[in-house]
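Entry for the shared binder. Reason: the reviewer on the internal report wants the predicted structure included alongside the sequence.
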Amino acid sequence: MKLEKNKVVFAVLLLCVAIFIAAYTALVLGDHEEPVIDANQIPVPKLEDEQKAYDSKLDAINDLKEVRQTNAPSIYDERLLDSTGVYDPDLLEKKKQWILDSLYGHQDMGFSEGTYGNDMDGQEIADYHIEANGRNEDSVDVKLIPQEGISSKEISLEHQLFFASSPKRDQMGIRAFVDRSIPVLVDGTQTVKAHCRLRMRLMRDVVINKIDIPRNTIVYGFVSFQPNRAMIDIENINHQPVKLKAFDFEDGSEGIYIENSFRAEASKEVIDDMVQDVSIPGVPQVGGIKKIFLRNNRNTKVTILNNYQLLLKENL
């Protein structure tokens, strides 16, 4: 019986596939010895000799790779590490002291004008200045007059006093100008009454409580009246608490000058009304008392022109 050719080829292909699957399964799922780590011995990787041999020096040089040095960042400040690498938190202060000691230890250093240090024998030379006495135009007599030099102890004391000084900071935190004041301008023509606010703006930058306040920042002050003066109190600038008063730029007095004496006029009018309304000696009528309250509650208004200059100063 003759087998068909197609069936033989198909059977051979199936046999090959079965053999491949069996071989691959045995290779992947075969038993492999797992490495056993001894508790008393740390495994070390095997050394492999991978050194490449070069035919010429040029090839070896061209094959060199730049090795960058990578250092872990130090947890200490490098300025506080001495020459041996030991960390010392007081190293900067010690260096300052070493520098001062070295300056004081040199006797040949002159700290004042006209000092020449020591001579060749180590003896101290005094300071001199030249005094010329001209007897005539062609001849001059020169005299060396000794002066007192500055000792190293005095210089050391001056340095210690300088580093030990602790100047007091301005309590309000306002930058100390030459005139100890802050110039401002009235922002627009305004008509104000007592206890109303006046709008102003800064003419230059200032620092309050370590915060920079730029120029042209709006400042508000509250108005009160006195004879011939409009007083202005400033309680904060850009939400920073202050205690300042406004002074007139022209006359330097506190407040703004206004031409009125409303208290004197009010007192005079009240006295006149009381005299007119008295029917019984020493007892005023009800109408006179009413007029007194009307006079005291009168609203006084003041118009302040635009760009009127004021100076803000601290309360003394």
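Summary line for the report: The longest strand covers residues 218-226.
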